[in-house]
Amino acid sequence: MNNKLNTQDVIDALVQKHDMSKKDAAAFVKEFFLLIEQALESDKTVKLKGLGTFKIVEVGTRESVNVNTGERFTIQGHSKISFVADATLRDMLNKPFAHFETTVLNNETEPEEENIPPENIPPVEHVTNKSVQSMPLKAELPVNEEPLSPIQEEKPEESKVEEESCPDISKDRMDKIDDNISILQKTNKKTLYTFLIITIVSVLLMCGIALLFVFSFPDKKSNNSKSTTSPLPVPVATDKSEIIAIPADTFARKAAQTETPVKEVADAAFKTDSVTYVITGTKTTYKIKKGETLTKVSLRFYGTKELWLYILKHNSKKIQRPEMISEGMILKIPELKKKE
Amino acid sequence: MILTFTRKFKITEVVNNKEFTAELSRKTGYSVEVTSQFITSLIEGMSQYLQDGKSITIQSFGSFEVKKKAERISVNPVTKKRMLVPPKLALTYKPSAMLKEKFK
User: Fold this and answer.
1) How far is residue A43's CA from residue A58's CA, in Å, rounded to a whole number?
2) Cβ separation of A32 and B24 shorter than 8 Å?
3) Cβ of A43 and B39 within 8 Å?
């Protein structure tokens, strides 16, 4: 709590500087401030050398809003006291930051947050003027009766310990600012390029994924399954290029937008090369699971996806279009007999 | 020139050191030179405390405190140039409630 001083401390300081009684000093100090007040009243501006200028400033009427109720109200015009420190005093107090200067910026973003905590103001880096020191502000000053000047000399140990922090901070600060300026100037272009590259790559990736999706659904479900749907898991048979001769009328009627897959497949249970089948009845019924398609069902029952059309035809009453099968639907799986 | 008893200072709207010292000397009874010295010492003493980072509160007058101002970017409205203003320690004065009321 040494950081908060009151009138008494000021009086004591005066007593120490001059050989005057405490009573006289107290009276003087009180009179001093009282006079400032009075002078301000009568003359609006009081300028004291070594301290600063006190000024009465008029503030105009303005509208404002009550934060709780939201209603508007006017703040009446009034005067307030402003104070500006004297140049000498200002410089004296700013000693820790004295070597900074305002610089012109070129296309720089906001500066980083000042990382010096408000309480811990660093001490002076050069100890050029010993009589006027700015000591570590967290230093605990013992309250003592000694005059002020010896107090400064007693604290050199502490100031030495923390001496380094100020130059480091200040140099770091300047370096940081310089680095920021140069980096940002370079990275302005860099970031643009990287952004472009990322966009292009991601677009390509998405196209690739989309293509994969398209290719993995070679059945009626995907509206645009063209004849070139390739990823059929079963390897191609030796005698190639035979097309499934599905009953033409069925094909024309049922397989609406889609062109049937033309690739030929080595059979598991059914031969599909130049062989047509006849539906001889219902083999069994099957309940569609979630996400299942006719090709999958065909695969399950016939060992090949190719014969989904038969299932479609057999269930033509239920499904008008090949993609219109849904979870839970019960389809009749036809019994197929070769028709050579 | 001091006009009347009540009207302490010249009608210049600014009270400077000379006038202030003169009036204070008159009030306290010390000679002008002595009051001048006292004023200087007083201010010096306060400055010393402020330099050490302490805040000073004067009853019924107000308080003086050294506050740290963060660095900021300011734009010159004429030239449109952006300047980086460095951080600094500045002296602030806060009038006491009584004074504030008085001058409202």
Assistant:
1) 14
2) yes
3) no
At CA A155, angle to CA A151 and CA A161, rounded to 5?
A: 165
- Closest Cα of chain B to A68: distance in Å? 25
Measured between CB atoms, which of A14, A39, A141 is closest to B42? Answer: A14
**A93, burial (CB in 10 Å: exposed 0-12, middle 13-18, buried 19+):** buried
Q: CA quadruple A3, A9, A13, A14: dihedral positive or negative?
A: positive
- Residues A35-83 have pLDDT tens digits of 999 999 888 899 999 999 999 998 888 888 888 888 888 888 888 999 9
pLDDT for A148 equals 45
Kindly report the backbone phi and psi dihedral angles of residue B92, in degrees, each rounded to the nearest multiple of 5, phi listed first: -120, 150
Residue matched to tokens 């004023």: B39
Scanning the structure block, which residue is given the tokens 């947050």? A113
Mean pLDDT value across residues A218-238: 50
pLDDT band at residue A278 under the 50/70/90 scheme: confident
Are A47 and B40 in contact (CB < 8 Å)? no
